[in-house]
Write a structure and sequence with these properties.
Alpha-Beta Plaits; 6-stranded antiparallel β-sheet; 14 strands; Nucleoside diphosphate kinase homolog 7; 3'-5' exonuclease activity; flagellum; cilium
Amino acid sequence: MNHSERFVFIAEWFDPNASLFRRYELLFYPGDGSVEMHDVKNHRTFLKRTKYEDLHLEDLFIGNKVNIFSRQLVLLDYGDQYTARQLGSKKEKTLALIKPDAVSKAGEIIEIINKAGFTLTKLKMMTLSSELIQFITSGPIIAMEILRDDAVCEWKRLLGPANSGLARTDAPESIRALFGTDGIKNAAHGPDSFACAAREMELFFPSSGVCGPANTAKFTNCTTCCIVKPHAVSEGLLGKILMTIRDAGFEISAMQMFNMDRINVEEFYEVYKGVVSEYNEMVTEMYSGPCVAMEIQQTNPTMTFREFCGPADPEIARHLRPGTLRAIFGKTKIQNAVHCTDLPEDGLLEVQYFFKILDN
């Protein structure tokens, strides 16, 4: 592999001490996974070329947030023509809608999306406003922004023919063949062109900063919170985790992807400060990339959701509670796949933090 090949991005970091944005040139060397940073304003090296295992080529696209040694950088633009040609020419975003009839199969569909090489960049379970009801049938849906080379065509190929009956004949492995019923209840939707994709994404994920369609959180006394941590999202485990939660009899009543900043995470984890020795590592993990927050309804009378998540340390979980989420998907006490509400009385507060405060 060519160890001299490099990709250059213009990146921005918010300095909380000075309350200003600092701009850097971020260089990534795919040959050995090393990074380098230059201070744009002061024309000096900020970080010498250093091996960094937590950044990967698939993380490098405009608008993404990446963490370099605990600094959360936003990738604003390509830094040179070579990078723009190599990484920018084929990358496309498209809209992926899971319709009401297939929301219960969201785990399987997201797993198919991951295996097809898409990067999930936005996700929100939502109900449609009156303006959008004409666009698609009413009821809860899951909207996603997905990214890959030739995304519009590849997503259409994964979906299969619009009529699920025809899909079962012509494309038996397609999403509509597997999870659809007919031409209307056909599991999922995808735009027909890049222009349509841009227009439809604006409806569900407005770029103007205004709120899109409302989330589906119920905010009941039976509510608890689950967060799929950034490492698990990055490793493509979201679909499997959703399937495992559903198969255990829990109802996911709201779900949304968030890119948290350090201040939000510290606020959310404040109860653990000075109590849990790994507090700083917990904070760093939670803002290291996108996480997916869920409102879970505690409808299972035989097990609380916290019990289903298992002990915080996956090694202990694998010995004592081998069927729990952390035993199956966790790696370390910090990268243990999911956060869950510890105290029953905190469930509603944690759900409100994400679906009332951060969503607005």
